[in-house]
Amino acid sequence: MALSRTARLVAGVLTVNGVLHVVKPSLYDPIMPRWVPAPREVVVWSGYAELAIAAGLVAPPTRRAAGLAGVGLLLGVYPANVQMTVDALRGDNRALQAVSVARLPLQWPMVRAMWRTWREA
User: Fold this and answer.
1) Mean pLDDT score of the chain, rounded to an integer?
2) If DSSP codes are grouped into helix, strand and coil, which group holds residue 22?
3) Given its phi and psi angles, is residue 38 left (phi above 0), alpha (psi -120 to 50 degrees) or beta?
4) Distance (Å, rounded) from C-alpha 29 to C-alpha 9?
5) Which of 3, 37, 41, 93 has the fewest beta carbons under 10 Å from its own?
6) What sign for the dihedral angle of Cα 110, 71, 19, 88?
């Protein structure tokens, strides 16, 4: 079965974000929830996970496992997106507030795409 358009988009997003997490982890430090231990290491390793999942989505033999791993990863990083939104809403930057609030519901179609990929692979 071919990879859906949405799953291909998610694979692209995971690839770009994975590279950024590994190459420039300082971009993600501010959005890490304060309760996360070793936040820098979590940022870097989540980048490796994103890259592995993106690669797994491309190869049919690993697509099913990658789809389920993608669900787990997207749910696992959701608290960082919530933290970014909470912090943005405390500030005065209206553009950052709008972007951070808008991105929260956008993660759910990505979770659904990974779920479908797992189910249909």
Assistant:
1) 92
2) helix
3) left
4) 25
5) 37
6) positive
Q: What is the pLDDT of residue 6?
A: 83
For residue 8, give Cα distances in angstroms to 57, 67, 70, 90.
8, 11, 12, 35
Tell me the pLDDT tens digit for each residue of 50-89.
999 999 999 999 999 999 999 999 999 999 899 999 999 9
Amino acid at 90: R
The 3-state DSSP class for residue 28 equals: coil
Instruction: List Cα–Cα distances, 10 to 38, 72, 96, 118, in angstroms.
Output: 27, 14, 22, 13
pLDDT range class, residue 108, cuts 50, 70, 90: very high
Q: In terms of residues, how long is the chain?
A: 121
Predicted pLDDT of residue 66: 96
Q: Which residue has the tokens 């993660």?
A: 107
